[in-house]
UniProtKB/TrEMBL annotation, chains A, B:
<comment type="subunit">
    <text>Homodimer.</text>
</comment>
<keyword id="KW-0032">Aminotransferase</keyword>
<comment type="similarity">
    <text>Belongs to the class-I pyridoxal-phosphate-dependent aminotransferase family.</text>
</comment>
<dbReference type="Pfam" id="PF00155">
    <property type="entry name" value="Aminotran_1_2"/>
</dbReference>
<feature type="domain" description="Aminotransferase class I/classII large">
    <location>
        <begin position="59"/>
        <end position="393"/>
    </location>
</feature>
<dbReference type="InterPro" id="IPR015422">
    <property type="entry name" value="PyrdxlP-dep_Trfase_small"/>
</dbReference>
<protein>
    <submittedName>
        <fullName>2-aminoadipate transaminase</fullName>
    </submittedName>
</protein>
<dbReference type="GO" id="GO:0008483">
    <property type="term" value="F:transaminase activity"/>
</dbReference>
<dbReference type="InterPro" id="IPR050859">
    <property type="entry name" value="Class-I_PLP-dep_aminotransf"/>
</dbReference>
<keyword id="KW-0808">Transferase</keyword>
<dbReference type="GO" id="GO:0030170">
    <property type="term" value="F:pyridoxal phosphate binding"/>
</dbReference>
<dbReference type="InterPro" id="IPR004839">
    <property type="entry name" value="Aminotransferase_I/II_large"/>
</dbReference>
<dbReference type="GO" id="GO:1901605">
    <property type="term" value="P:alpha-amino acid metabolic process"/>
</dbReference>
<dbReference type="InterPro" id="IPR015421">
    <property type="entry name" value="PyrdxlP-dep_Trfase_major"/>
</dbReference>
<keyword id="KW-0663">Pyridoxal phosphate</keyword>
<dbReference type="InterPro" id="IPR015424">
    <property type="entry name" value="PyrdxlP-dep_Trfase"/>
</dbReference>
């Protein structure tokens, strides 16, 4: 037996964990690889528009940090995160009766890590985990490694329906996961009254309600609704991120949680990556500490509002009867529903052949999927291309009705 | 029931996962918190010396990257990592018959994340995991979240004894974890002949041998021994890091693995933190790409060699009979054995009261601990303080014999 035979025998025969065996390659990911071709108009991306990245501010901040505090910025640091950044975050969420403590804030390597840590600390195999219908695909990917039993919660065009959270449905759950602001994939925003109901539910629940809020700052009119955290600060686990308001490539997010859970999350994070890079945490703090976001975020809102309007206008102009979609008040996504007979996974293959792309809705459902749905992102496509892309997509749909 | 009562009931009653309930606070960590006081001479740190961080090179690299490629450096990027850095790593490990492919390299958020991903992908509850006696504490922390059954492997002053890897002992194992170069905590380096034996074992094993190599570049004479990877490239999972040769605060490490395992690790990483920060990966590449390490690493070696010599001289000068220690040929640690009756956990409390600190050996043992052992780091303590600190510690030990 020569070396190459041994190779094949050995690496392939290594036994994987149960959870790893369940990991499958995404068919969508394979199809979407071609969308990097410049001729493709892609509404598939979940990426923020790079024109919104404050590169010069980051450059100046990096330079100051490596000039003034190189040893600290380049050394190992506390698992909990950079204290001035934790304090800044706590202060930003504190107002009136609601006081968030820096001791509740854990800095994470992007919000995705927050999901992994919550799975680690809360989920056992077959634990019930409550999710919206549909829900964020990245959360499903994270939690699934801990092998939960998903329970899909009822939703309508306004999002989660708190009245449907019956004791029978929620018994034994380890967490409820929700994105109340401009949800990925639907773009839905939970109305004020439902927030009050969900916060009241959280106060009596035996498990945390997780409020994942990467898009909250991106409401087009600058009229945010109160967070669940502000309504029930000791009963909500709030996830935040600088990815959509500064830049995702720094991978800086955070978890705000009651101290009891915070300590466990810190222990889990220590075993997971010791700490988020000291340097990137300091860059974020240096850029935001003097109020930069107050002038910067409105420019992102204005850009996305304009591109969202262009997409809604194009949908109105081109889509045949039988196609419906929502009108987001913020965020990055429009959610569309096609006639029931159209499977958007199959539609995607034809669309890509016509140089237009989107994300099929099916992977965003934890259990039974609505296969006639799709997600459209407008944030990285200029208005004239939005019009052309939606026209192409509408023609394909029309041909299938 | 008022708001604060609800708080106490609720957050404390949230049910944690089995793995999280097993996480305990480290008594050592609590004791060592006081070692941040300036009057304490601490041999407890595992931190590299900040004088070795190339801050000016990092500053210039950051500036160039944010000037020339801000959109790419600040945007989401591939889970696998920054391709030029992956190619640089693959080339660095390729020589003669051994060709490492960029497609085998996954960039991780520090080496600690590599351990978490291996646990995720390979370890089920009660899976046998083979570890050295003692072994790296951080690896135990990572793997333990996946609830393995640890099997302690026989070692002597030269490290792991491959001849003791019998079929009975290794049956059903999911991985063997080893640090052949200047192991943390013992500073031991595995001799060439044992490397050959361990590589041969790996070629016939039904599980990967994981070669964790953060300290390999730090051999004081600049005469590295060949890696296990170079001896059995398709049978070894090799972990590397820029933490000890550039700076740990960037959190950039990597896994080299056969593609079959690599793909699974990529899927697991995607669910864990999407990707390591784009910016820090580019900084590392920008600093190392033109041969910087070839001149930089010898300066780190020279510093650590000198401080190691100072510690060995002080141990020789002050330690009473009955205390033994090794003479590392590289790395950051000396491992000492005290008379059997001395429990170094208890010794630590007295030592801290006398303003000198170390890490007790017990937590580095997966199962039965040798409680009369301790780890001494010399890299952040100047020679005159090393002498004073060891004198104090020796006096405490002498009083207990």
């Amino acid at each position: 037996m020569d070396q190459s035979d041994l190779t094949n025998v050995s690496a392939r025969s290594w036994q994987l964990s149960e959870r790893a065996r369940k990991l499958t390659s995404s068919a969508i990911r394979e199809i979407l690889k071609v969308t990097e071709r410049p001729e493709v108009i892609s509404f598939a991306g979940g990426l923020p528009a790079p024109v919104t990245f404050p590169a010069e501010q980051m450059r100046a901040a990096s330079d100051r940090i490596l000039r003034d505090a190189p040893a600290a910025a380049l050394q190992y640091s506390a698992t909990e995160g950079y204290m001035p950044l934790r304090e800044w975050i706590a202060a930003r969420y504190s107002q009136g009766n609601v006081q968030i403590r820096a001791s509740q804030v854990l800095i994470t390597t992007g919000s995705q890590q927050a999901l992994d840590l919550l799975g680690k600390v809360l989920v056992c195999p077959q634990s019930p985990v409550l999710v919206e219908t549909p829900t964020y695909l990245g959360a499903l990917q994270s939690f699934s490694l801990y092998e939960p039993h998903y329970v899909q919660l009822s939703t309508d065009d306004a999002g989660l329906i708190p009245a449907a959270l019956t004791p029978e449905l929620t018994a034994g759950a380890r967490l409820l996961y929700a994105q109340p602001n401009f949800q990925n994939p639907t773009g839905r925003r939970l109305p004020l009254e439902r927030r009050r109901e969900l916060a009241a539910f959280a106060q009596n629940a035996a498990f945390p309600v997780v409020e994942d809020d990467p898009y909250g700052a991106l409401d087009y009119r600058g009229e945010p609704l109160p967070t669940l955290l502000s309504m029930a600060p000791e009963h909500i686990v709030h996830l935040g991120s600088f990815s959509k308001v500064l830049a995702p490539g720094l991978r800086v997010g955070y978890i705000i949680a009651p101290e009891e859970l915070h300590f466990k999350l810190v222990q889990a994070k220590q075993a997971t990556d010791l700490h988020t890079p000291s340097f990137t945490q300091r860059i974020v703090h240096e850029v935001v500490k003097d109020g930069f976001l107050d002038t910067h975020v409105p420019t992102i809102r204005a850009l996305y509002r304009e591109q969202c309007a262009a997409m809604l206008a194009a949908l109105e102009r081109y889509m045949p009867e039988g196609v419906t979609w929502n009108r987001p008040e913020g965020g990055m996504f429009v959610w569309a529903q096609l006639p029931a007979a159209i499977d958007t996974m199959k539609l995607l293959e034809d669309a890509v052949a016509q140089n237009v792309a989107f994300v099929p809705g099916a992977p965003f459902f934890a259990n039974e999927a609505q296969r006639n749905t799709l997600r459209l992102s407008f944030v990285t496509v200029p208005p004239e291309k939005i019009d052309a892309g939606i026209a192409r997509l509408a023609a394909l749909i029309r041909a299938r009705i």
